[in-house]
Amino acid sequence: MTKTMTGAKMVVQALIDQGVEVVFGYPGGAVLPIYDEIFQQNSIQHVLVRHEQGAVHAAEGYARSTGKPGVALVTSGPGATNAVTGLTDALLDSIPIVVLTGQVPTFMIGTDGFQEADTVGITRPCTKHNWLVKDTDKLANTIHEAFHVATSGRPGPVLIDIPKDVQFANGTYSEKSKRKSHYAPQVKGDIAMITELAEAMAKAKRPLFYTGGGVINSGPAASQLLRELVEATGFPITSTLMGLGCYPASGPAWLGMLGMHGTYEANLAMHGCDLMINIGARFDDRITGRLDAFSPKSTKAHIDIDASSINKVIQVDMPILGDVAHVLEDLLKVWKAQGRKTEKESVAKWWKQINEWRAKDCLGFTQDGPIIRPQYALSRLEALTKDHDRYITTEVGQHQMWAAQYLGFEDPNRWMTSGGLGTMGYGTPASIGVQMAHRDSLVINVAGEASWLMNMQEMGTAMQYRLPVKQFILNNERLGMVRQWQQLLHGERYSQSWSEALPDFVKLAEAFGAKGIRCDNPDDLDEAIKEMIAYDGPVIFDCLVEKHENCFPMIPSGKAHNEMLLANAQVQGSITATGAVLV
Amino acid sequence: MSALNIKKGASSHSAYDLRSTFGDTIERHTLAVIVENEPGVLARVIGLFAGRGYNIESLTVAEIDHTGHLSRITIVTTGTPQVIVQIKAQLGRIVPVHEVHDLTVDGPSVERELALLKVAGQGEARVEALRLADIFRASVVDSTLQSFVFEITGTPEKIDAFSELMRPLGLQEVARTGVAALARGKESHV
């Protein structure tokens, strides 16, 4: 039976058929027919954001915390251009989202019509794929294909641009099952190479698992298999910012995050290992530091679903193209079937060395004096919330790194942060997306006051939908990471890196109808955090912290892992002119 | 070195081909990219080269399968072996790209380019142009008392050589198609 309906109805029908429950969006002239259809149904809940960038970040938060694709709906022109940052963010972090944009009617395309922008042109380099649909008959199939592309292979953002006349016109709806697509990325890894990796693991004296967001993107099974593999081998494991939670922070093999602000033990283990097993990470520059001094003595294996990630910056010895869960399943099978044993004595020696590095306690700090140190604030937040059903989002900057260092993640999909693009303003809308998916959970956005102000309008969204998101702002009245780099690299000339005329965050919370809490005393902090957790509604928590705290450990730009700095005293003259060029 | 040539959906493909033995020399490679002929597909390919800073020496494109709506893009590019591998991998992940073939490493191949050259002149130069055209098997497709338009087919090097010879004889204008290339032998890509 063929179903005839308008394009606008088709959009809603296709979303329902794809299992979509929530759409984040903002109406406008070019999407009015779709909004009319949304009005006349109850299957999909629409969340009205306050800015289109917020819609896309909320969809990202939704997607990351559920593993399902997030959906955003915005109008043409400015609606679409406001979505660009979110699309780029999702592209860099491989987050599956589907963005629907309105477009001027097909007969007006190219005439510089009102609110016309070349949306597919603008978003071509910041989506995994995009489509301009000029024929209503093709609309439903395009939407089905879009969900397939967004969620298959290396996930990513896709966009469908729908001219207004296509929304009004009648066409034939094609079922999800009728979708035709040639797009089918390889998921099974090459078994010969997997066997070779198992052999290398059995012989390794100083092995290390280096995991990333690919483990999370591969689904909960991948994290489970990873945990089994770590247990079966007893090898140490570290993770990138994007991979936090794939192995539990309380697990015995956990070394903490690696990279520019990673732990001493994780980075030195990367530098000194003889077998590096990269699982779903991409040798990002935050991780590698100086390339020619990156883990010089190791044999490297790399499991990745994207062929273009392999040998892009670091040449590897054992490339395995495939989905993490599929490859780990095969690797475990091979490992067990062959009764593989590790080099127990050597690995024990390796652990002894790692434990010596651990003893440095690189994240140690003391809370002395009357001013809250940000590390203390996050340690207390961790202590008081870790037993809750908790989701964390962040903005971008020092607070983000401290959150990665001082909060522990036991499970995947609990940690939402803008890693690749580093988008300030990500956290607030992302927390809204997360809370929409997990209504009864504790959702906290760890923020800096500067980042938080970038998308603070979304507090209105939180109020409207009764989303009890907790905005935990570490307020140092500075653009902390910029200030830190200016101190280290630019002769302490703090150009434009402090925030004057900050709002009163408590009054701001009240103006939105939310609860505001301010805390500036370490002794009051626990009570204040408990009050935040207990409050049934959105909270803006203004935590006034030490203004000039730097984020350590730190691998200065242009340096190798074994040249990391642990404290301020080591900073002077540590970064050369060539290093300063790097970001 | 072996080429990265992963067919989408091919689960039995050996990843051994991904092993790198990279050098620093700049190589010239001819790539055949089979794409779905949908709007914007050429912009995606060109945008990839522009956005990631890769070189395009020559690019040709035309639909080759009118029922299947497949186009063949032939790209001649240069780069270090590592860059060439990246280019192929990046091309491979563009959704409407069906296949990427590196004709330079896949085996022997033939490359041809067509060019039209307008040569104006009189007297001895005009006779000489005609004589050289004959040697290069170029044909005359337009003629006036003061000019010829030659059509020549061959490798890019042959066309370069012919253009250089025509220059002192009154070369006015050149139009070149860019390279079309196919692997030799009975195996086919599409």
TrEMBL record, chain A:
Residues 194-331 form the Thiamine pyrophosphate enzyme central domain. One of its GO terms (molecular function) is magnesium ion binding. Keywords: Amino-acid biosynthesis, Branched-chain amino acid biosynthesis, Magnesium, Metal-binding, Thiamine pyrophosphate, Transferase. It is an enzyme of class 2 (transferase). Residues 396-543 form the Thiamine pyrophosphate enzyme TPP-binding domain. GO terms for biological process: isoleucine biosynthetic process; L-valine biosynthetic process. It comes from the Bacteria. One of its GO terms (cellular component) is acetolactate synthase complex. Its EC number is 2.2.1.6. Pathway: Amino-acid biosynthesis; L-valine biosynthesis; L-valine from pyruvate: step 1/4; Amino-acid biosynthesis; L-isoleucine biosynthesis; L-isoleucine from 2-oxobutanoate: step 1/4. Residues 5-120 form the Thiamine pyrophosphate enzyme N-terminal TPP-binding domain. It catalyses: 2 pyruvate + H(+) = (2S)-2-acetolactate + CO2. Binds 1 thiamine pyrophosphate per subunit. Binds 1 Mg(2+) ion per subunit. Its cofactor is thiamine diphosphate; Mg(2+). Belongs to the TPP enzyme family. This is Acetolactate synthase. It comes from Loktanella salsilacus.
From TrEMBL, chain B:
It catalyses: 2 pyruvate + H(+) = (2S)-2-acetolactate + CO2. Pathway: Amino-acid biosynthesis; L-valine biosynthesis; L-valine from pyruvate: step 1/4; Amino-acid biosynthesis; L-isoleucine biosynthesis; L-isoleucine from 2-oxobutanoate: step 1/4. One of its GO terms (molecular function) is acetolactate synthase regulator activity. One of its GO terms (cellular component) is cytosol. Its EC number is 2.2.1.6. InterPro entries: Acetalactate_synth_ssu, Acetolactate_synth/TF_NikR_C, Acetolactate_synth_ssu_C, ACT-like_dom_sf, ACT_dom, AHAS_ACT, AHAS_small-like_ACT. Keywords: Amino-acid biosynthesis, Branched-chain amino acid biosynthesis, Transferase. It comes from the Bacteria. Gene3D superfamilies: 3.30.70.260, ACT-like. Chain A, domain 2. Residues 30-105 form the ACT domain. One of its GO terms (biological process) is L-valine biosynthetic process. PROSITE patterns: ACT. The keyword Metal-binding does not apply. Catalyzes the conversion of 2 pyruvate molecules into acetolactate in the first common step of the biosynthetic pathway of the branched-amino acids such as leucine, isoleucine, and valine. Dimer of large and small chains. Belongs to the acetolactate synthase small subunit family. This is Acetolactate synthase small subunit. It comes from Loktanella salsilacus.
